[in-house]
DNA sequence: AGGCATGTTGCCTGAGGACTGCTACAATCG
DNA sequence: CGATTGTAGCAGTCCTCAGGCAACATGCCT
């Protein structure tokens, strides 16, 4: 009943919109800078693409570039694997299989041991 | 100078061929069981697809099925992320970013601490 | 030798993805 | 008010992917 469209949280679009606004760009301004039409950008931000899926990886790339954002963050929101991550994963697959099989809580604790930082309250 | 074709080690094709032979299938026997033409299978095994890339995820799936192989293993060889892994990664992206940024040796040691040993025969 | 099963390769095509490029419309604002 | 902005629909384009097909080579068996 819901291929996507309604109800889906849409983190990517929201993030892009926020970035765009923070730069003071309108859709019509930004579009040519990343080489697409403004109406397409609108659809991206609202997660209203004709088909089901994300915009191309290369568009994400250009957006990160122009909006001076963290490319990997955007890639992940669009459900693309950043290159560096992909390399590591496919290089040591079993290792990551082990990790993904861990219960989330344990995984989190393991990582927090490695990397102390990362807290919530500001 | 080398889009791919030559020199690439081709782990996926080799693995599929091994599995196929171990089941005593010829290309022509196996092909209909996974719903593709035998010549396409040959290309898959030899990594001679027209373009650069892997066969479809769904073909990998059917191959794992028919050949009674570990699906995730094949998916990873074909550079597809197994669903479970993808879910975890996109669910907790920063966590995996941290992990992939670790030097390989450290990552390995961390994991081996979690999972004692992959070791040993029954 | 012939025949047949097997594997390899090059060209071809159909479907779908990633957009373009309009157009029209509603809301906002200065 | 007019100008700017965002939303939406839809036809049409271009390209890549995934696989099909026919022809070819090679081996093996009696």
Specify the helix fraction band of chain A: 55-70%
Cα-atom Rg of chain A, whole angstroms?
A: 17 Å
Q: How would a crystallographer describe the biggest sheet of chain A?
A: none
Order of helices and strands of chain A: HHHHHHHH
Number of helix segments of chain A? 8
Overall SS class of chain A: mainly alpha
What portion of residues of chain A belong to β-strands? under 5%
Oligomer: homodimer
Quote the average pLDDT of chain A: 88
Shape of chain A: elongated
In terms of per-residue confidence, which ranges of chain A show pLDDT below 50 for 5 or more consecutive residues? 1-5
Q: Terminal Cα separation of chain A, in Å?
A: 40 Å
Name the chain pair with the biggest interface and residue counts per chain.
A-B, 33 and 32 residues
Question: How many extended strands of chain A?
Answer: 0
Set down the secondary structure blueprint.
2 copies of one chain form a homodimer.
Chain A: H1 11-22, H2 27-34, H3 38-46, H4 57-66, H5 71-77, H6 83-91, H7 93-101, H8 104-114
The structure holds a DNA duplex (30 and 30 nucleotides).
Q: What is this structure, in a nutshell?
A:
The first copy, chain A, is mainly alpha-helical.
Descriptive overview:
- With 122 residues, chain A is mostly helical.
- In chain A, 61% of the residues lie in helices and 0% in strands.
- The first copy, chain A, has eight helices and no strands.
- In chain A, α2 (27-34) crosses α3 (38-46).
- The radius of gyration of chain A is 17 Å and the shape is elongated.
- The N and C termini of chain A lie far apart (40 Å).
- The interface between A and B is medium-sized, with 33 and 32 residues.
- Chain A binds a DNA duplex (30 and 30 nucleotides) through residues 26-28, 36-40, 42-43, 45-46, 48-51, 53, 55-56, 59.
